Amino acid sequence: MNSSHSSHNGASPNAVDQAARLLADQVPSGEVTLLGHIDPDADALGTALGLGHALHEAGATVRVSFAEPDEVPHSLRGLDAAGLLTRPSDLPQVDQVLVAVDTPSPARLGSLAPRVERTVEAGGSVLVIDHHASNLFYGTHHVVDTEAEASAVVAMRVLDAMGLPLTEPVARGLYAGLVTDTSSFRRARPETHRLAARLIEAGVDPDGLGRTLLDDHPFTWLPMLSRVLAGARLEPAAARGLGVVHAVVDLEAARDVRVEEVESVIDIVRSTTEAEVAVVLKEQQPRGSTRRWSVSLRAKSVINVAAVARSLGGGGHHLAAGCRMEGDPQRCVEALLDALAQAPLLERR
Ligand SMILES: [Mn+2]
User: Fold this and answer.
1) Ligand 1 center–CA 211 separation, angstroms
2) CA of 88 to the centre of ligand 1 (A)
3) CATH number of the domain that 239 lies in?
4) Is the domain of 315 the same as that of 235?
5) CATH number of the domain enclosing 99
6) Looking at residue 10, what is its pLDDT?
7) What is the number of structural domains in the chain?
8) What confidence score (pLDDT) does residue 322 get?
9) Would you say residue 101 has pLDDT above 70?
10) What gap in Å lies between CA 50 and CA 118, rounded to an integer?
11) How far, in Å, from the CA of 44 to the mean position of ligand 1?
12) How confident is the model at residue 11 (pLDDT cuts 50, 70, 90)?
């Protein structure tokens, strides 16, 4: 077995076939519940909806859900072509087959995490479809490929093994995961571009969908950016002299915008030439008098920000990770800079 095979640990043809058989047993008359992680992105929700739609078209009763927040992000609503999205409170007590998508640990399911154990105890199956290196292999079935750019790539292998038709709503969900997790195909291998071509042949509108997902903001976005970017700071000596740029989106700045606008800030800040690492602190609702932050970390190519996030209780990918912090934002930045000063370096590719 060569090294490229061992890195596909959990995504062997055998694992894909077993996952396909598990799902095929639920059509035409079974039930499948698919879950994305909390604060779902287009890969989590799009992949769950794409796979879910294929099972729905094949006759299964399909529900797609996630725990927090209780609203579906506006930019992702168009991915639910058949009304499969289900509130956590409307899910059945026990799932026959639970599929966790893009979710490396049960904790990332938020308040839905207890379902994993409950399903296994009731004799059901838990299929984990993911591409995070931090995956804990917490299910009964796993298709986890840490080399895949998106969970959508992994899910497509299962769909192909099942031989289900690739209709436009299925392709739309998967394409959403692909275009976002590859930074608009800049980090996509040739085979992933070929997968995208299949999805476009199935009817996906890449320009319209890409715009909705990545390039569509209300006017209130501009004053928010103006305020947040005015407070951005460059620390050239930080992260082993490779440079860190950081910005803070507090509740006041975020008052008139959606989560999509707040999430867009990191993509602007990380363009900074002088900084290897970009950090954005996004304020969450306080607990009592304690200020709380969701932190986005991005690196260009050298610093392993997943390790930094893990050291602070979070996780993610080598070049894109996150964590939660509490307290004064300046203190949080100092703690992040301390962690970045000791961050492991990635092998240059
Ligand atoms: Mn993903």
Assistant:
1) 19
2) 21
3) 3.10.310.30
4) yes
5) 3.90.1640.10
6) 66
7) 2
8) 94
9) yes
10) 25
11) 6
12) confident
Question: Residue 237 C-alpha to ligand 1 middle, in angstroms?
Answer: 31
Alpha carbon of 236 to ligand 1 centroid (Å): 30
Q: Which amino acid is at 147?
A: E
Last residue of a domain, one of 171, 191, 215: 215
Q: What one-character-per-residue DSSP string does 227-238 give?
A: HHHHT-EEETTH
Do 78 and 64 form a contact (C-beta atoms < 8 A)?
Answer: no
Query: Could you tell me the distance, in angstroms and rounded to a whole number, from the CA of residue 328 to the centre of ligand 1?
Result: 30
CA of 239 to the centre of ligand 1 (A): 26
CA within 13 Å, CB half, 188: 23
Does residue 296 belong to any structural domain of this protein?
yes
CB 303 within 8 A of CB 276: yes
Residues 169 and 254 in one domain: no
pLDDT band of residue 145 (cuts 50, 70, 90) is very high
Q: In the chain, pLDDT over 70 holds for what percent of residues? A: 97
Q: Enter the DSSP assignment of 74.
A: G
Is 143 within 8 Å of 129 (Cβ atoms)? yes
Residues 114 and 189 in one domain: yes
Q: Which residues pair with 321 in a beta bridge?
A: 297, 316
55 and 145 both lie in a single domain: yes
Q: Kindly state whether residues 209 and 226 are assigned to the same domain.
A: no
* Ligand 1 center to 288 CA (angstroms): 33
The mean per-residue pLDDT over the stretch 101-119 comes to: 96
Which element (helix H / strand E) includes 305? helix 305-311
User: What's the 149 CA to ligand 1 centre distance in angstroms?
Assistant: 7
**Residue numbers of the domain that contains 295:** 221-341
Q: Is residue 46 part of a domain?
A: yes
245 and 149 both lie in a single domain: no
- Domain final position from 155, 189, 215: 215
